[in-house]
């Protein structure tokens, strides 16, 4: 069995409640081809880089699963024929969970992470208050970029 990652895109014309049947359909496909899901994650609704079938936004859903290599082609074909899925990609990955990608975090989350790490290193640096960071961020954003 090989370990794979499936990222697929559902049009934003569906509501959050209408996503569940589509997710169940994908899980059923994985089960039909002897796949075992190890991770399931909804990455949320995001703006697309370019329109796909007149859709400007979509829901990104991520699955990690184990699947026999000989069943991969049939799974890929079945996903391609599913009309509710705009795009999908299947990538072979190592079983080790990669670290979260920092560019997916919001600027506020990055600041909070910096604050937590600076607080954990007591005595090395002066503590930074969240209000001071917010004020500094506002000053930077008010400046003319051009």
From TrEMBL:
Similarity field: Belongs to the bacterial ribosomal protein bS6 family.
Name of this chain's protein: Small ribosomal subunit protein bS6
Pfam families referenced in this protein's UniProt entry, alphabetically: Ribosomal_S6 (PF01250)
One of the record's GO cellular component terms: ribonucleoprotein complex
UniProt keyword list: Ribonucleoprotein, Ribosomal protein, RNA-binding, rRNA-binding
Function (record text): Binds together with bS18 to 16S ribosomal RNA.
Organism: Candidatus Buchananbacteria bacterium RIFCSPHIGHO2_01_FULL_39_14
GO molecular function: small ribosomal subunit rRNA binding; structural constituent of ribosome
UniProt KW RNA-binding keyword: yes
Signal peptide extent: none
GO biological process: translation
């Amino acid at each position: 069995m090989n370990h794979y990652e499936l990222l697929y895109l559902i049009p934003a014309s569906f509501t959050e409640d209408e996503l569940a049947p589509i997710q169940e359909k994908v899980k059923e496909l994985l089960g039909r081809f002897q796949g075992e899901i190890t991770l399931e994650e909804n990455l949320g609704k995001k703006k697309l880089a370019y329109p796909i079938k007149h859709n400007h936004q979509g829901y990104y859903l991520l699955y990690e699963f184990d699947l026999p290599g000989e069943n991969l082609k049939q799974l890929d074909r079945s996903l391609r024929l599913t009309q509710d899925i705009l795009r999908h990609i299947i990538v072979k990955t190592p079983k080790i969970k990669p670290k979260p990608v920092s560019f997916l975090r919001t600027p506020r989350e990055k600041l909070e992470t910096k604050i937590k790490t600076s607080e954990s290193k007591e005595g090395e640096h002066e503590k930074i208050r969240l209000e001071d960071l917010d004020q500094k961020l506002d000053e930077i954003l008010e400046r003319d970029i051009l």
